[in-house]
Amino acid sequence: MYGWIWRHLPGNAWVKALISLVLALAIVFLLFQYVFPWAEPLLPFNDVTVDQGMGAAQQMGAVR
Amino acid sequence: MTATGQDADACRVEDTEASEASSSTPPPPPPRKARRRIAAVVSVIGELLITAGVVMGLFVAYSLWWTNVLADRAAHHQGDRVRQHWAKAKSPEQKELDTKDGIGFLHVPAMKNGEVLVKKGTSSKVLNDGVAGYYTDPVKSALPQDKTGNFTLAAHRDGHGAKFHNIDKLKKGDAVVYESQDTWYVYKVFATLPETSKYDVGVLEKTPKESGKRKPGRYITLTTCTPVYTSTYRYIVWGELVRTEKVDADRTPPKELR
């Protein structure tokens, strides 16, 4: 997969390395900016409040 | 390693005379193309697994570091706004301030985390800005100036400012000071509950019976999640108001904070 991408990048090894770095940073940015903030409330690591068990499933979404 | 190498060599030789070779050797080795395809699939799966590992590592960095950076920035910004607000509205008639930016600051010397802005509500949107929120639901919090009641707060243990990270450092008798525009409210911790169910809303009651209190009083309750890095249980700390102090012109902190 990565080999395939490497072979399809234009330029010599230096240019390829630079493009790869930019691509990697862009992916990290997308993850931090959009993917992780979306995923975080779906994961059970950050609930700090107490709330009623009844309807917890709906409530949790708002209280997390 | 050597065996596969030999196999590959054998394959290459057999390619030219495939029909004869396959009849002489009982288990025919898989053709080179198929084998190469399998190797490609295996390597893609491997690369995907490595990628998944890296992404999870990045998520840990995001949760425990980057959200703190963002939250501290937001909390400072909002805290500054509240202080500016207070500085402008000097007259006591104007002390009814809007609760949008926050109502005051919590100082807990034992937690060694400076001042924590207190805002209304405990939704993730509020708490993710690195503040402590007072409950509006399921049990409505009292405010410090109320005659009796329980001032109930929640904040993150990890990430998003991690304002209550050191809640386990609080012991009986430790000071919890709440600063409003014109008053310092000095509370003393009288009970802690290191582990309780996340559905234990009783801890938020006006007179929290689980703390051992039976009579109405002016209480403060801090809630966060425990153990650290998880949300399995809740950690509760209760305090009781011991005195209030008027804020002077220099906002000299009470002796507990000096």
UniProtKB/TrEMBL annotation, chain A:
The chain crosses the membrane at residues 12-36. This is Uncharacterized protein. Keywords: Membrane, Transmembrane, Transmembrane helix. It comes from Streptomyces ochraceiscleroticus. It comes from the Bacteria.
From TrEMBL, chain B:
Residues 1-34 are annotated as: Disordered. The chain crosses the membrane at residues 38-65. It comes from the Bacteria. It holds the Pfam family Sortase. SUPFAM superfamilies: Sortase (SSF63817). InterPro entries: Sortase (IPR005754), Sortase_Class_E (IPR053465), Sortase_dom-sf (IPR023365), Sortase_E (IPR042003). Keywords: Hydrolase, Membrane, Transmembrane, Transmembrane helix. NCBIfam families: class_E_sortase, sortase_fam. This is Class E sortase.
